[in-house]
Amino acid sequence: MIPQFVFGLLRSPLLRLHEEGIHPDYRIYLQCLFSSLEPSSLAKAIYPLLISYSSPNKQAFPRHTLSRAALTMSESPIFLLDAFTNLVVYYSSTADPSLPFPPPHDCLLRTTINALKQDRCITPKLMIVRGGQDDSSLFENYLIEEQDVDGSGYASGNGFISFREGIRNEVAEILKEESGS
Fold first, then answer.
1. Alpha carbon distance 116, 126 (integer Å)
2. Strand pairing partners for 76?
3. What is the dihedral of CA 58, 63, 64, 65, to 10 degrees?
4. What are phi and psi of 87, to 5 degrees?
5. What is the reported pTM?
6. Interatomic CA distance for residues 133 and 1, integer angstroms
7. Handedness of CA 96, 100, 101, 106 (dihedral sign)
8. Domains along the chain with CATH numbers
9. What string of pLDDT tens digits covers the 181 residues of the chain?
């Protein structure tokens, strides 16, 4: 997971500039928050956890990649994104309309959310959104694996896969130079 954490940190507002729309005070807040977190919480703050549910009472898969491809390939209609300071429940646009929205208070999904809230040093903000109906930009902004490191978009080919390949090539080049000297 180290490459994912590095990529997530590079995409984090902590390393963004004021010119990119990140207020300096927010960066300082993140620096103070991140420095006080224990490792598992810091990991979620840097690289969120995406869990799918086939219904509010049944978890489908415990960890997905943070990509749109994961959403489309998964047949699950409900996703819980845990980004430490934010919890986002996302109902896909293809979710069966008979699924209860918002999830009932006595279901597994709500129990999980309540447990996550209780385990935090700060209370995360909870958002419940329906894809295609509500503004899902907060959820979509966490799908970082297709984004490039400098934030310029999704189609540039500089997402996580390209990032990982770039690291692999750089390491191979360094090792080649080291073994040749």
1. 11
2. none
3. 160
4. -120, 125
5. 0.78
6. 34
7. negative
8. 1-180 (3.40.20.10)
9. 787 888 888 778 887 777 777 888 888 899 999 999 999 889 888 889 999 999 999 888 888 888 887 888 888 899 999 989 899 999 988 888 889 888 999 999 999 999 999 988 888 999 999 988 888 888 888 887 775 544 444 334 567 777 778 888 888 888 888 887 6
Q: Any idea which residue has 């958002």 for tokens?
A: 127
Cα–Cα dist 140/66, whole Å: 9
Structure tokens at 120: 């935090």
Place of tokens 């750089």: 170
35 SS3 class: helix
Query: Which residue(s) pair with 88 in the sheet?
Result: 81, 127
Residues 132-145 as b/e (b if ≥16 CB within 10 A, e otherwise) read: eeeebebbbebbbb
Distance between first and last Cα of the chain = 31
Ramachandran quadrant class, 81 (left: phi over 0; alpha: psi -120 to 50; beta: rest): beta
3-state secondary structure of 172: helix
